[in-house]
Amino acid sequence: MASTEEIRSGLADIVNEVAGIPADEVQLDKSFTDDLDVDSLSMVEVVVAAEEQFGVKIPDDEVKNLKTVGDAVAFIETNQAA
Amino acid sequence: MTASITTAEGARHTRILGMGSYRPSRVVPNSEIVDAIQSTEEWIRTRSGIIERRFAEDHETVQMMSVESSRKALAHADIDPAQIDCIVVATVSHLMQTPAVATLIADELGSTPAAAFDISAACAGFCHGVSLASDMVRGGSAKYVLAIGVERLSDITDPTDRGTAFIFADGAGAAVIGPSEVEGIGPVVWGADGSKYDFIRQQQSWADVLKMEKPSMPHLRMDGNPVFRWASFEMAKIASEALDRAGVTVDDLDVFVPHQANMRIIDAMARTLKLPDRVVIARDVAYQGNTSAASIPLAADALLRSGEAKSGDLALFIAFGAGLAYAAQVVTLP
After folding, report:
1. Is the ipTM of this complex over 0.85?
2. CATH homologous superfamily of domain A4-81?
């Protein structure tokens, strides 16, 4: 099981690869759209890469609830543990 | 006594003998689209990679654009229209439900009495047409077949819909398919998933339109994000499968011609497929928009005319759209 920090760090690398945002800016309190400028299509790419890396399923309906990096990390943490 | 039925005999191998396309005359830049959807040119460009698109004028009908692109394809193939045994037209925007527009196209070209019919496989239509055409030639039902992809999506697009207004456009493309000494059309990988029927659809059925107080054109609607996910990732798997079935790898490939839906999908697919840098990727969507069934022949023809692709190049076609339907095949470019 990956820890909160491992998930955040893994997610940061994904956001960096998909959207070119420096990984150290991808912190738990940051909003994907407002702070990191990740648009909804890039968000889909981030989600697909995260599913693969962390072995979770993130349904389309859930994606819109993942407003901040912290939301995404919490979702992954809960669902990988389930 | 029982008479025996003769078995039709076709060609062992098939290929695309010629391609042609037609781009409508009116260029529509993003600046013409933005007001009705309260958006910006920048938003359209970053969302879709589309800089401009073409909309058909009144005289550029589905039939007219099909005939023009077919004449170019026939000339490229050096085949006389009278030699065509069948015409398959992939379209969802011919606003006359019956008879098939293919019959009028055949007649105008001088191909009558060739078999002529339309197919409905939305954006995947052209690759369906190529597959049917190839199988007809192999099966002995026809020697030369014309496969056409044609749309006037501007007729069925809501200019105020933020999800589609900046995407859809008009145009036509055609390919002549016939027998070959060596294999030029690989096995098709195709399918459909009706559980995702609602992702891209005509807004209301014609029956429901007639029940409306003020009947109006039922426009196309699309759920962008789920479609993006399906197209970018699920379709990359289908593309890989088409390469496998043809017995080739990405390293053998010269050209990648995906359906020109959105530059972001094209980029995501290319990344997922890990295409080598030397593979030419069709990016016609920037100047042509998404022309559904017409997008692959328009894009492939543009690469051939510009010299970016050449005759004999190995190309991967993959088309996907409403249905959700998809089809992919490896072909040798004419």
Report:
1. no
2. ACP-like (1.10.1200.10)
